[in-house]
Amino acid sequence: MMKSRTTFTYLFLLVTILNVSCSSDAIEGTDIIEEDGLMDDTNGIDGENGGEEDNGQDDGTIAFEAGLVLDEDRRFVNYVVTETAYNAFLQGEGDLRMVTNKIYEYVKDDYDFIFMLNVEEEQPEGLYFGRHTPVQNHVSGTGSNLYDNTGTYGSEGRLKGIIHMPRTVYVKSGPFLHEIAHYWANHNFLETTVGGHWGYASVGGQLGGFDELVDLGNNMYRGRLNGNNNFGTFANGGNSVPYGNAELYLMGLIPADELQSISFARNAERTGNSGEFSADEIVTYTPQDLIEQHGERVPSYANAQKTFNGLAIVLSVSAISQEIADRLNEDLENFSRAANPDDSWSSINNFWEATQGKGTMNIQVLDENVRL
């Protein structure tokens, strides 16, 4: 259920990686699953800018090299790239490996996720709101195969995934929580007609679905979420919705005995009425059904990672303004708090809240994370 405050919240193919591109963080829309083939490293900024070791500035920033600067609050790196490289990201063709291999020259392999953000003031037409590119999977029992492509991105084995969003404000407004969830779900853990998402299922989380199903008779149903007569099949409103029960299980944040049964509408078709759809039948999967199908989650809840590290990289064609830096620092600090964010977030969840206080996401570059 959404929180409130009194003060006014596959298969890894042999040489390709599946990207889940979320076309909207709104209630409803269309999604794409694409294969991310190898890219030429020709669109990036020259690597010959010759940075110096320990190039700290009086204001606390660290210039790793010209155009690659760690912000004074140590929550993000501003990477100035060519206009060609920058625009490639706005066309959904950005060279992720150019960026990650460069950043690993200066930052240690201490991060589970890398967040890449363009600085667009408006959502680019025809572009996804967010995309998650999986880099490895070492967790079984989630419906996904095991694979490891960390070396391609310059990681020595820790990096799990890369998230790209075209606007820095999406850290707050979403789909930030949504894209993080894609690392674990839905990789065929539950059948769906909406690839990579929950579709017409009672998960009611970041990747869509409802939390209440009303039988209207004659094979007609209405999905409700948080008491409202509507739900999304692929998303449920940016960062305003916490993770669902199945999402928490797949993330390793609750044990198997807390996993709940899931109802799924087979051959569902939406009508023009809010939350209403027809379906051939409603199938219920018990926790035992899901675990028998996919196996137990390994590592189990007892041994699963609960604290994650994220590295934010801001892509721009010139050094970002202080206004953008200040706003982004505030949003990253709020998102990564192991506590409620400040009142300006109102009904918006940060990672800690969305996981019911069961998980934390650190977004910081400490001295110990920097290669000397």
Describe the protein's architecture and organization:
This protein is α+β, with helices and mostly antiparallel strands. It has eight helices and 18 strands. It has helices spanning 83-90, 96-103, 170-173, 176-181, 245-250, 287-294, 322-336, 351-354; strands spanning 17-22, 31-36, 62-65, 68-70, 76-80, 113-117, 130-134, 136-137, 147-148, 161-165, 212-217, 220-224, 262-266, 269-270, 276-278, 281-285, 307-316, 360-363. The strands form four sheets. Strands 1, 2, 3, 4, 5, 6, 7, 10, 17 and 18 form a ten-stranded mixed beta sheet that branches. A hairpin with a 5-residue loop joins β4 and β5 (76-80). It is globular, with a radius of gyration of 21 Å.
What characteristics describe this protein?
globular; 10-stranded mixed β-sheet; 372 residues; 8 helices; disordered N terminus; alpha+beta; 4-stranded antiparallel β-sheet
Gist of the model:
By secondary structure, the chain is α+β, with helices and mostly antiparallel strands. The chain is 16% helix and 22% strand. The strands form four sheets. Strands 1, 2, 3, 4, 5, 6, 7, 10, 17 and 18 form a ten-stranded mixed sheet that branches. Strands 11-12-15-14 form a four-stranded antiparallel sheet, with no helix packed on it. A two-stranded antiparallel ribbon has the order 8-9.
